[in-house]
């Protein structure tokens, strides 16, 4: 079967997961060679500072997910330290 890896949940495991998939792949009538898709988060901005600001939306969303809160992606904020507490 084809393989999809959600590296935005476990980015450090991406290459290990791809290696395991490829090394254990067995061809079939539907798929003769390994086929993988990787999901990653990318933030594009004019500067690192702007990218870090935009990233606060993802940080908030992850914290809310861990707290069992659902909803839309929150807007970026200037100070994550205030959000953590």
From TrEMBL:
<dbReference type="InterPro" id="IPR050766">
    <property type="entry name" value="Bact_Lucif_Oxidored"/>
</dbReference>
<dbReference type="GO" id="GO:0005829">
    <property type="term" value="C:cytosol"/>
</dbReference>
<dbReference type="GO" id="GO:0016705">
    <property type="term" value="F:oxidoreductase activity, acting on paired donors, with incorporation or reduction of molecular oxygen"/>
</dbReference>
<dbReference type="InterPro" id="IPR036661">
    <property type="entry name" value="Luciferase-like_sf"/>
</dbReference>
<protein>
    <submittedName>
        <fullName>Uncharacterized protein</fullName>
    </submittedName>
</protein>
């Amino acid at each position: 079967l084809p393989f999809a890896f959600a590296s935005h949940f476990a980015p450090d495991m991406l290459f290990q997961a791809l290696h395991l998939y490829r090394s254990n792949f067995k061809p079939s009538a539907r798929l003769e060679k390994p086929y993988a898709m990787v999901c990653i988060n990318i933030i594009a901005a004019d500067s690192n500072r702007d990218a870090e600001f935009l990233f606060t939306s993802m940080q908030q969303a992850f914290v809310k997910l861990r707290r069992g809160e659902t909803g839309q992606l929150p807007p970026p904020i200037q100070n994550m330290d205030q959000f953590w507490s």
